[in-house]
Amino acid sequence: MKSRVAVAVIAAISLLASAVILHPGVAFARPEYATPGREIAFIQSGSYSVDPLHTSVGFEVWHLGIAKVQGRFTKKSGKIVVNANDITRSSVSFSIEADSIDTAVAPRDQHLRSADFFEVAKYPQIRFESARIRKTESGYVADGKLTMKAVTKDVSIPFKVYGPITDPWGGTRIGVVAEPITLNRQDFGIAYNDKLPDGTPAVGNEVTVHLALEAVLDKP
């Protein structure tokens, strides 16, 4: 019995030694992951490019006064410039291709691209450019100008920052979540105004936008 136990122990040790000797090693820098949902301050200066594959721009608006229609934009780009020593000297720029609107209903998407709504052939981009970034008790606010259908309005967008982390590809990555952002479409010339017989708007004026993005530190 003792001999069988000894043989088993020796075999286990041999397997462990083989695994250590033959292991190919880590193919990339081991990432340092943040705790999910843990917000932090901007701590690493630099220019960050928005990762469009890990960025979402969604919206929702009342339809016929009884339910909300949801959609998204699938084409977007942007840049975040962080000055960790003086956050007011940081900046954000973000662009959306208006024709990338997607509500999962093709005829509705075509209508949204028309002159009744975004008129994408004439106004292909929706753009935000910050004028200043400021710290608040609950996160940050980007004060700046939002341009849609050639109408530019001052807006203030509250947001929170997550990271930085070292991602699985060796990059330095941050996350930004801005929600909810509430806009009145009429302010930007999206004036479609059909109503039900009782006066209820077919499409609500107030649009709620949800933005979540990841951005990667540009390499020198």
Task: Looking at this protein, list some descriptive labels.
mainly beta; 220 residues; eight-stranded antiparallel barrel; Lipocalin; 2 helices; disordered N terminus
Low-confidence stretches: 1-34
CATH fold call: Lipocalin
Rg calc:
25 Å
Number of domains: 1
Question: What is the strand arrangement across the widest sheet?
Answer: 2-5-6-8-9-10-11-12
CATH architecture: Beta Barrel
Shape from CA axes? elongated
Q: Count of helices?
A: 2
Major β-sheet annotation = 8 strands, antiparallel, barrel
Q: In angstroms, what separates the terminal alpha carbons?
A: 65 Å
Structural overview:
The chain has helices at 2-22, 106-113, and strands at residues 39-40, 46-50, 56-63, 67-73, 76-82, 91-97, 101-102, 125-136, 139-148, 151-166, 172-184, 203-217. It is mostly beta strands and 220 residues long. It has a single domain, classed as Beta Barrel (Lipocalin), CATH 2.40.128.110. It has an 8-stranded antiparallel beta barrel with strand order 2-5-6-8-9-10-11-12. The protein is elongated, with a radius of gyration of 25 Å. Residues 1-34 have low confidence and may be disordered.
